[in-house]
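Good morning C.,

I know you're traveling, so I'll keep this short. The sequence:
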Amino acid sequence: MKMRSMLGLSTVALALAVSGCTAFDDSPTGDGEPQVATAFYPLQYVADRVAGGHAEVDLLTPPGKESHDLEPTVEETARIAQASLVVYEHGFQPAIDDAIEQNATGETLDAAEIVGLEPFTGEHADEHGHEHGHDHDDEHDEHSHEGESEDAHHEGDGHDHGGELDPHFWLDPIRMATLGDAVADALAEIDPDHADDYAANADDLRTDLEALDVDYADGLSSCERHIIVVSHDAFGYLGKYGIEVAPVAGLTPDAEPNPVALGDLQQLIRDEGLTTVFNERLASPRLTEALARDTGLKTAVLDPIEGLSDETADEDYLSLMQANLSALREANGCQ
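The tokens, ready to paste straight into the viewer:
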């Protein structure tokens, strides 16, 4: 433990020396605005919306980079060390977790603890080694659409969020709104002079996300099909809208499926009359395209929105979610 602490301090010193900066003074008389380091894109989107113009929000995962595999550079470690607030998701990016534990000097906000993650569901959950049977005392959000959306604020729920739980919470707009409220509270503690603005920005974000939630619930309420075949298991939170997910790979897009699983998928496609295999922008389409060729299906993009790419640089979370909704409606024959 002593050696690990010394290594962490050395990393901080090197990072700050390279960046030419010192840690941010987050007292009321500090010279700068709050600095917020966000681990990957959905967290950045929330922090940007809530911060408005009152804080500098940095993204640790570069655009186009697969977020699961991120290894922070010296510069990214410096951003963690300098930040007055780091927003991350414990278990989703282990290298970021380690960098935060060793180097963060400001406040940290774990999205997994705030939003309340759900277990992987269905037969494919067991392929990850995920177990079922967890009790979730989710409180239903007063803003939910017809009681389906949940205010999943589970502080201290005792789960290991890097294990059996599905980390892709941002595909549930209401959970994103819950995170926005928590970011507003954290920024208000750091920068009380702008607390009212942070709260108002979080309210505006919630309004947009609730409208998106309604769009999904209404848009997917009457469909010929309700099962989707996707490149990897990132879309489980669409289950609140009646969507069942059959992934080609596992938790990571580059995981190789076994022949039995591929055979099961081909049978499922025939039984359900599916028309589309979904791939994604930041992962290789090799597996999904091969499955589509073997089954005579077409391919389309369903974006897990873990990060932006050159192709989506002018998009944001809301527009990408709307594009996903359109793709789902077309593939599933929704009225």
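Safe travels,
E.
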